[in-house]
Amino acid sequence: MTRLSLRVSPRAKRNAILGLRGGTLKVSVTAVPERGKANDAVVELLAETLDLPRSAIELVSGGASKDKVVEIDLPAEEIARRLA
């Protein structure tokens, strides 16, 4: 289980993982930040990118913030490898 800090940009032109900056993974999603839509889009994007089921990724903090923390059922080294 790995905790990962995210900086999310909602209402972007495309869903993308933009890279690691200062220990935080920068993510953009097209979804609007209303009723958890952007949070769902972030989890979906991470699940697709890391080739995991959505249930393996849990938002643990930052539900109403651009700065979020997720818990992922993979070791940190494997996450880094899959994101590379």
Can you characterise this structure?
The chain has helices at residues 37-50, 76-83, and strands at 2-9, 16-21, 24-28, 57-61, 67-72. It is of the alpha+beta class. It has a single domain, classed as Conserved Hypothetical Protein Mth637, Chain: A (2-Layer Sandwich). It has a 5-stranded mixed sheet with strand order 2-3-1-5-4, with helices on one face. The longest helix is centred in the middle third of the chain and has 14 residues, at 37-50. The chain is globular.
Produce a short descriptive summary.
This protein has 84 residues and is an alpha+beta fold. 26% of the residues lie in helices and 36% in strands. It has a single domain (2-83), classed as YggU-like (Conserved Hypothetical Protein Mth637, Chain: A).
Topology:
Elements lengths: L1 E8 L6 E6 L2 E5 L8 H14 L6 E5 L5 E6 L3 H8 L1
Parallel strand pairs: 1-3
Antiparallel strand pairs: 1-5, 2-3, 4-5
Order of helices and strands: EEEHEEH
Low-confidence stretches: none
Number of strands: 5
Number of domain modules: 1
Main sheet properties: 5 strands, mixed
Task: Kindly list the characteristics that best describe this protein.
84 residues, alpha+beta, 5 strands, 2 helices, single chain, five-stranded mixed β-sheet, Conserved Hypothetical Protein Mth637, Chain: A
